[in-house]
Amino acid sequence: DYMLHYPVKVSEKSSDSYLGCVFDDIPVVFSEDGWSEFCEVLEKNNLMELYGDWKIAPMSEADLPNVYALKFQIDAKLCFSTTIHSEKGKLWLEYDKLLGEEDLIHSDDIFYAVDCSLNATFPDDRAAWDEQVYENMSALYFRTMQEFKVQLRIKASREGMPYFNKWSDAIERLIKQLYRYVTWCQLIQTT
């Protein structure tokens, strides 16, 4: 089956090229206070009809590969943090707080883009979740962590490139100087 666990999606939108997978329903557990704060900000900033692809990033790249907190962002308008919880092999996300502009996900950050619907639920609702919700959450978690690890390796090697390039430039200049010196010595010996 070529490891195709999700339907293939073809799109003419170039923005879809960074999407890793399509996940149907991702529940986020809110406290009553957290939900009130969240809705208040959405209404105040006219973000109730906001839709698009979610970017998921670790709260701190220093925590990789052991990530227990994620931030979710849609466009550059809404960003919030969540905590990953696990009980008896079942994973879920709990809302922490809204984040400011300083915490927005940028193109050079490690992140994973997902086409999904985030649905607000409350702690008591978890008892009614079926097994498919938890399977979806596990798939999202493992896929996201895998992508974070790949991007971390790429980013680490990319940051080593300036050192490598400067080293290469220095060696190249030394070789040129050595070649000039050898040429100069040969000229002196022939005269």
Explain this structure.
The protein is an alpha/beta fold and 191 residues long. Helices cover 38% and strands 27% of the residues. It contains two helices and six strands. Strands 1-5-4-3-2-6 form a six-stranded mixed beta barrel. A hairpin with a 2-residue loop joins strand 4 and strand 5. About 4% of the residues have low confidence.
Write the SSE topology:
Blueprint lengths: L18 E11 L2 H13 L9 E5 L10 E6 L3 E10 L2 E9 L13 E10 L9 H60 L1
Q: Widest sheet: strand order?
A: 1-5-4-3-2-6
Mean pLDDT: 80
By secondary-structure content and strand pairing, the structural class works out as alpha/beta
Order of helix and strand elements from N to C terminus: EHEEEEEH
Radius of gyration: 25 Å
Unreliably modeled segments: 13-20
Q: Count every helix, treating DSSP H or I runs of 4 or more residues as helices.
A: 2
How many beta-strand runs?
Answer: 6
Strand percentage: 25-35%
Shape: elongated
Give a short summary of the structure.
The protein is α/β, with parallel strands linked by helices. The chain has helices at 32-44, 131-190, and strands at residues 19-29, 54-58, 69-74, 78-87, 90-98, 112-121.
What key phrases describe this protein's structure?
38% helix, 6 strands, 6-stranded mixed β-barrel, alpha/beta
